[in-house]
Amino acid sequence: xxxxxxxxxxxxxxxxxxxxxxxxxxxxxxxxxxxxxxxxxxxxxxxxxxxxxxxxxxxxxxxxxxxxxxxxxxxxxxxxxxxxxxxxxxxxxxxxxxxxxxxxxxxxxxxxxxxxxxxxxxxxxxxxxxxxxxxxxxxxxxxxxxxxxxxxxxxxxxxxxxxxxxxxxxxxxxxxxxxxxxxxxxxxxxxxxxxxxxxxxxxxxxxxxxxxxxxxxxxxxxxxxxxxxxxxxxxxxxxxxxxxxxxxxxxxxxxxxxxxxx
Length: 262
What we know:
By secondary structure, this protein is of the alpha/beta class. 31% of the residues lie in helices and 22% in strands.
């Protein structure tokens, strides 16, 4: 028995070493900053937005981060979102003349109960639909709430309308929403749509750029570029699946430019 025991003792260091290697991914190690990450690195889901932005190649001087969500994200645990560095969120409210995002009221009701996260609502603009009826649809759904942030209109499809017609219809929508809310809507789009279809006619509006390149490629002659949606594959606690990630490009005070001060 003793010989057998001595044999076990002889192999004990090797067994301990192998056990450490196998279980090492479960151990946490402190980084120089004091933040703890696993030995196999935190999953993207656990990283704060700032870390995801830097990993994307973003400018570390941009420190105000946010997300935009819709029905695609399903049920959201906002208490967990509040534990992250998300500073603002935009919710999809409406699309065209009649559609309401099925999750909009649920999200809005939840956000109205907290006072940490700034939020706003957006409309997806259908270029071939009546712009007044689109504005009415948006206002009807949003009117029962008090969003902190500017109304936003997502305009990115032409639906065979020429640029002048799109501009005319977008102005009708914008004017009606501004008259009702007291705030000029922010415009969300991508570079080529701005350059070719709406351009400087709307350069007095705050502009939100969608561009997933490593480096932001600003449209020509845009004056008020304030937000950059740099990814549609982000990860945030409390949200299942990918989510759009956004950053304020005007420094720490950029949120002041997108507040709807009534």
